[in-house]
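#struct-help
A.M.: can someone run this one for me? Single chain, 114 residues.
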Amino acid sequence: MDLAASAGRLLTRIGDALRDAVMEAAPSTELKIWPEGDWLLRLNDAELEFLPLAKTGPDPWGDWQPPAFEVVVYGGLGVTIPTNRYVQSAEAPDACGSPNSLGRCCCLPPSRHH
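D.P.: on it. Structure tokens below:
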């Protein structure tokens, strides 16, 4: 049995199980599937994307040290969760304008800030 084909089938089964679990838990999620086998789930502005499988080239690591195992195929899983008025980056002040080291929006009205 070809190792790349076997690994590709296994990764596809994992991706399919993930996609099906999300669709079952959140039926209003939009699903787009491409002929290459990759797919995209979108719920509001959040996205989960399973990227197509590819065989690893003959010298994929370049100047990097290769891992201790052989990589015969690879794919990708992308997660996009946009910042909104409830969650902001830790570097930015919260929606009320106050710095917040936890990166969370302050829920107090501006008149209650001290």
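A.M.: thanks! The CA atoms of residues 44 and 59 lie 40 Å apart.
D.P.: also worth noting: Strands lie at 30-33, 39-43, 46-55, 73-80.
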